[in-house]
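Q: Hi! Curious about what C40 family peptidase looks like structurally. Here's the sequence.
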Amino acid sequence: MLRRSGPIGTLIALLAVLLWAPAPAAAAPDDSCRVLAPGASAAAERAVAAACEQVAAGVWYTWGGGHGPEPGATYGQVDPSDPASEHDPERLGFDCSGLVRHAYARATGSDVLNGVASAQYYTHRAAGRFTAAQGLAPLVPGDLLVWGTSRDLHHIAIYLGAGRMAEARQSGTKLMVSDVRLTSGYYGAVRVNPGPVEGPLFRTWGTGVWTKAEPKLSAARVYAFPGPTTIRVGCQKHAEEVTSDGYTNDVWSYLPDYNAWMTNIYIQGPAWLDGVPACGT
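A: Let's find out. The predicted structure is below.
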């Protein structure tokens, strides 16, 4: 057999090793629950840590869990639409928004995100909002991801970074770390401002009160307040006159957190709100 020696032989031997060496195994996804990227505020990192503490403890998803008088795990309820929830009343845990409420209460020392997923997304404590079209690029750990439509935001989770999130997903499962699902109705994300809130704040009254895409009753519906809510008002203007619940008023307020309008009839205060500028001035 002819044997090659010297540099050429060494090169051939090296090529043979490279060609026959097994391909390196693909890196396993990082299933740890922790901050996985830079850029988050100290409060957001604390919120991630609080959520991950519950994931590590093996806490159950429970429908309605986490919505007691104070933040924290509670026994759930039976969801009439989900047979898997039959054991939720026996389990101490969180639903998706209950986990978010708990995490940010632990992070801030105050119950800043009490409410369901839609109330948490539309919070007046928003420091920034991101659309589905923007993807994950602008997000940092602690941002809240939501799924659904503007009228019905039905799921919320806490972003960890690197395309991963902590979530209370569904009955019959425990809290988990998952890949972010950019399909299946992903709507966008909100960054929480845990500090003082700028802008005039007011309370709404009534239930099932719709905000509108324009300041008129015939405009497209955006979101209905399930009950009294704290809102941030950007400006107000005279527009279509509305009569409802014994009141008549032609003043509408623009709500920047909803990108929508609301008749001042359902905002507590005078017909023309004190301290709110006129739109366009």
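A: A fun detail: DSSP finds four helices and 16 strands in the chain.
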